[in-house]
Amino acid sequence: MVIRSYTAIVEKEGAGYVALCPELDVGSQGDTVESATANLKEAVELFLECADSGEVERRLHTQVFVTRFEAAHG
């Protein structure tokens, strides 16, 4: 079994949270940050289990950077 680290970007949306794994473009949601992240982990694991290796390779982005920047506005 191969274990690999992935990124979870979690955003508040309405009464819940939406989570995205940008490496595979897989998303999920939950009532809390923790549940959204756990649901995303499950969704990624199911995708990796069910998708053929070609699909995983096509969707896998290995160079994902999460950063912040400042922007001026009036």
TrEMBL record:
Protein origin, superkingdom: Bacteria
Its transmembrane ranges are: none
Q: What is this protein called?
A: HicB-like antitoxin of toxin-antitoxin system domain-containing protein
